[in-house]
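Supplementary Methods S3. Input chains for the assembly prediction are listed below.
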Amino acid sequence: MNQGPLLFLGVLCAMAASWMGFVLMPQVQLGNQSTRHVKEIGRHYPAERGGLADKGHDVYRAAGCAACHTQQVRQTGFNFDIVLTDAGDFTDLVISLVKESNSSFSDQQAADIVANAPRTILEAVNQSVANSIVRSFKDSGAKVAANIRPTGPDIDRGWGPRQTVGLDYLFDEPILLGNQRIGPDLANVGSRLTDREWHFLHLYHPHTVVGKSMMPAYPYLFETQIIGDDPSSDALPLAGEFAPEEGTEVVPTAEANVLVDYLLSLRISHPVFEAPYLFTQAEPSENNNSETEQAE
Amino acid sequence: MSTKPKKTVHKKKHAEDREPGVHKDPVPVLLFVITLLLAFWGMMYLHTNAGGFNRYVYGPFSSYDMVSNVQPGSSDDPMKKGADIYKSICLPCHQASGMGAPGQFPPLIGSDWVNVEGPNRMLRIVLNGLNGPIEVNGESWSGAMPGFGDLIASDEDLAAVITYVRNSWGNEGSACTPEEAAAVRADSGDRGRPWTGPELMALPVEVQ
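Predicted structure tokens for the full assembly:
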């Protein structure tokens, strides 16, 4: 050890380099983000969670949900759908261009598409093909749009319409990304499963709603009480082997309520700049309902 | 034969006595070459896969331009898109009529900041904000407008809202193109503080 300072300097450099790579650079890159207007939903995103849903975040954390569920949807690629949005005035030219873009069309099919625009011409093509088709229509007077579509195993499973990005976690403290997928991903669970009662039953005992579920039951989030004058309106509709004793009912505790509030607040059901896709309002009424419920 | 064990003992003793230390032995050149090659490979990897360390770029995209180019609905009418953005960001202060609020927020309608040949100054105000006294149509105003460069992340959206303001309520300005918006955003990228009236007046009205 006659080179102490040199060793110290070497260790310092190694530590400083990794600190810069793992802490400083991500902070410079992703820190200091703010909510942003998303035109597809006409409001700023993300919105801060209501008080109850925020408490639910703590219950989610305490119950160890993050040990088996992730909250990150991954996207491995993207492709394009080509849509003829406006056929323009030069019908014959456009029909021949449509046939050129997709050789599987017959004359009649191509004519139908042009007559009934907007119609999809091609699905799931890569970017260079999409660009060349859009270019081929450039001077025809017709308008075509290449709509991006995220792809990847997570998206095929229906776990979300797009990948999750840093912005989605702006109000999460701590961020519960999770690293094991023993259960499905929950980043978009509020859009996929919108029924409160389903969530209560599922938490009380997963087998009441999902026969082969390997999730543990969380009975301590519920109370079994003796039915008073009237049955509680919150009582779970349990039957068969899960039914409580005669004269008693199972009601969710405050913890179960806030946990379900939190689960329903997990949504990535619209595009953001970082993860674009064509937004078609697939489930507007359901989303609006649950949003107003939370606001109340 | 009888001297052999003696020798070993002697050698061992010598080895134990020696003080361990770092010596200046030559490092093989090959090690340097391998290290440099690894560092080069690492940098090339970051160059192609890190998206320029831009916060808006996530895999599978590899650059900001790539994400920007695949935004859906890019053939949308900028006036329509601009109106949406105006409603959510500009309207609270400048009002739906573009009249602003007397004594607080200057008007956009008929303003000599809006009805000029190019959108250079407008773009900069929207991107970084404006602080301190300015003159609008001969009237002086003093206030503070925050920048919205982060909020309006795409250059197309930025161009749309500028185009909307320049062509609404009887204003007659040229449309702002996404390329102009991108150029000004790149030019004022790391400014990080609001503009002042005199600073903007020193700049040309058209995007260079």
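Chain A touches chain B at residues 1-3, 6, 25, 28-30, 33-37, 39, 42-44, 75-78, 85, 127, 143, 145-148, 163, 165-166, 271, 273-279 (CB under 8 Å). Residues 282-296 of chain A have pLDDT under 50 and may be disordered.
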